[in-house]
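Ticket reopened. Same input as before:
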Amino acid sequence: GNSVTQMEGPVTLSEEAFLTINCTYTATGYPSLFWYVQYPGEGLQLLLKATKADDKGSNKGFEATYRKETTSFHLEKGSVQVSDSAVYFCALSDRVNTGFQKLVFGTGTRLLVSP
Amino acid sequence: EPEVTQTPSHQVTQMGQEVILRCVPISNHLYFYWYRQILGQKVEFLVSFYNNEISEKSEIFDDQFSVERPDGSNFTLKIRSTKLEDSAMYFCASTNSGGGYTFGSGTRLTVV
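Engineering reply: fixed in the latest deploy. New output:
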């Protein structure tokens, strides 16, 4: 079945450091790919998405490129802030039919940014 | 921006009791979902609901679980007889056809 693998955390960085969180996937067909963020005590928020190969999703300085050849969707940010501390989930949509989409999540990567 | 609203934000219940988690999806969305996240683990799909019936359910969603859309706005998840291992954060979500997910902020269920 479809699955998502992302790097173990926590990732600990100093403010303004470069961030990469690796994500690879296994899927049949052509899933859409997502990054969700969960701040402490809050729910899941969509950070960015890409719906086809070579698409780049970006938001709030984060970006990720849908790489079909390496089945990857790595999250990057050039300069992290303390406020970016959160858990980041990579996910793919397992589209069963034209309407219903089931999301398959990775295990999440906790990012801790220190001043 | 439209939101998915979940109540309560935190529920504590005794083992064996029934609980109902409530959600108000976005009004023009047609597909509704429940996911759960056991503390420190991945977010897992439970069930999807469309046109007043279950579209798909996971192996987690056994006979102890049920979902209902009792009126035009609410979408509920019922756990008939809670177990300790049902303790988790439960997220409701809704989508429109081809659209992205909107998640609620979750209900933390603690079974004691």
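The CA atoms of residues 32 and 94 of chain B lie 4 Å apart. The interface with chain A takes residues 30-31, 33, 35, 41-45, 48, 50, 55-56, 91, 95-98, 100-101, 103-106 of chain B (CB under 8 Å). Please confirm and we'll close it.
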